Amino acid sequence: MTISFTATNPCHMWPTARAVMELGALGHFYSGYPAWKMAECPPQHLRTHSFRTNVVYGLLKYAPAWARPGSRSLFLWQDHGLDRWVGRRLEMCDFIHAMPGQALHTFRAARKMGIRTVLNHATGPVREWVRIMQPEYERIGMKLTDAAPYDDAYFAREDEEYALADFHCAASTVVRDQLAGMGIAPEKTVVIPYGADTGPRVFTRSENDAPPREFRILFAGQIGIRKGLRTLLDALTLCGRPEWRMDFVGAKLPESAKDLAAYKGPVPLEFHGAKSQSELAAMMRASSVLVLPSLEEGFGLVVPQALNCGCPCIVSDRVGGKDLVRPGENGAIFPANDAAALAKELIAFANNPIRTTDNLGWEEPARKLVEWSRSVA
To answer: Which of 25, 13, 209, 18 is closest to 118 using CA atoms?
Structure first.
């Protein structure tokens, strides 16, 4: 039995495919990245088509904003180009995994070849994202379409991809439940939480695994309203202390300006920008807790990454990574949008610091995927 994957960017599909390869079940990995960036995959398994990726990132890096299309349009052009290319060059396998927005031509070709199709969801359905986030954008005086211009053409394409999918692979029970709300039969969906890279100097615990002396809170991800920024800031205002430290790692989106400007809490906020994986891992090892208070989050890869580094995680109940959290053992789960509940958890961890002992790699997700594939083949 062979399982193939296609993804414009490596994302979660790449480490999953590598682990599936170790189990002897990988067909091919179709990537929009250049082959030299995918060096860990033997050539017999790798198929790349990177022209549009090179154009997109070249424009984003070198062209002035006024002289290039919007980033959303560029990324859609990139995704659709890989999808058309894979649709013309798909090679025989038993299952092909593709992500929403990148699956239409691939799945059309797969159906003709008798290949089982799996729509692989890192996030929930876009319609659910729109439902959750519409009021938040209205709150800050923005149109949701300015941040994510999903139009009728996008939804028509997504609907056909769903219709062509034999199965769905969801990153979490949060995504599974959202798919069920759209009418996807639960028996058509398999839930496979993600792992984290556990090699040397990546997401592993330090030899000195004692909690930090000062209470250090870490947020990692794009700093915007979807991530529950206002809930976090309100919680810090309710319970924070001047000696606490609040570190933000990631890009600060313009939409966060209003909430950040309104913050008057006692905890100083420190912004570190984007970090490499090794730098992020070092910050996780040095932090008391990672907080992910998202209003919508299909998984949240920083959750297994932080847990592997010994850092407990406080997440909202809309974060798919909650499937890995054992309250009282390696973190806590609180109701989304509830700043008082988050404040209570922060105080609890400040008063009773702990370290985690999880070891969440990609081997277990790959094993589960291969076993499920065999069961439905």
So the answer is: 13
- Side-chain-side CA neighbours of 314 within 13 Å: the count stands at 31
Token pair 């923005």 in the structure block, residue: 142
Confirm if 121 and 171 have CB atoms less than 8 A apart. Answer: yes
Q: Which residue reads 């700093």 in tokens?
A: 223
Residue 220's CB: how many other CB atoms inside 10 A? Answer: 26
Residue 251 CA to its chain's centroid (Å): 15
Question: Which residues, other chains included, contact 75 with Cβ-Cβ below 8 Å and sequence gap of 6+?
Answer: 8, 56
d(CA 354, CA 356): 7
The whole-number pLDDT of residue 201 equals: 65
pLDDT band for position 20 (cuts 50, 70, 90): very high
- Summarised one tens digit per residue, pLDDT across range 68-123 is 888 778 899 999 999 999 999 999 999 999 999 999 999 999 999 999 999 999 99
Tell me the residue ranges of DSSP E strands in the chain.
3-7, 26-31, 46-48, 95-98, 116-121, 167-170, 189-191, 216-220, 245-249, 269-271, 289-292, 313-316, 331-334
pTM of the model: 0.93
pLDDT tens readout for residues 135-188: 988 898 888 777 776 788 888 999 999 999 999 999 999 999 999 999 999 999
Q: Please give the structure tokens belonging to residue 79.
A: 């995704």
**CA quadruple 217, 221, 222, 226: dihedral positive or negative?**
negative
What domains sit in the chain, N to C, each tagged with a CATH number?
A: 3-194+362-376 (3.40.50.2000), 216-351 (3.40.50.2000)
3-state secondary structure 199-212: CCCCCCCCCCCCCC
Over residues 285-309, the mean pLDDT reads 97
Please state whether 199 falls in left (phi above 0), alpha (psi between -120 and 50) or beta: beta
Residue type, 61: K
The gap between the terminal CA atoms of the chain, to the nearest Å, is 8
